[in-house]
Amino acid sequence: MSEQALLVMDVQRMIVDRYPDPAYLPRLRKAIDTARANGVRVIYVTVGFRPGAPEISPRNKLFGRLAGAPASAAAAQANDIHPDVAPGPGDIVVTKRRVSGFAGSDLDMVLRANDIDHLVLTGIATSGVVLSTLRQAADLDFTLTVLSDGCLDNDPEVHRVLTEKVFPMQAEVTTVADWVAAR
């Protein structure tokens, strides 16, 4: 029997705010509630750094501007998981240090310790955390499902190409409604 986990990735307030789609969080909430009701482990993957971001090289094009930046209470709060999809009791929160959910985190250890071999991917952005996590998870031999409308990207065409052409080579791609109906 395959053990599944729903990965809810990069839905921190500061990230969600950059992707205005009023239907996204309610749709994601439905997937989360369905997972919990059906015994599917819910794992949140967030991006985060220690104060001063000593894990970041200034050479890193995406995160380099944060290297050596002083921590602030406002920045920490903005980095919290959005309250509309906040973790519940029994959910796991993993902090990653780069784009992939596996990079600099203990995600693989958590998955293996819980005998999870099937990942259901959601998150922001499709071309960022979802793509990077999918590729690494496939290389680690996980069975993969992507909830296409459980992902967002700032470029709709990139989202379409990934969910319709790239992801199906390594994952089943479905919608939140179809995944919920199959539970």
From TrEMBL:
- Which parts of the sequence belong to the Isochorismatase-like domain? 5-178
The answer on whether this UniProt entry bears the keyword Hydrolase reads yes
Annotated GO molecular function terms are: hydrolase activity
- The UniProt record lists the EC number as 3.-.-.-
Q: What class of enzyme is it?
A: hydrolase
Superkingdom, natural source: Bacteria
Q: Which InterPro entries match?
A: Isochorismatase-like_dom, Isochorismatase-like_hydrls, Isochorismatase-like_sf
Protein's UniProt name: Isochorismatase family cysteine hydrolase
Organism expressing this protein natively: Streptomyces prunicolor
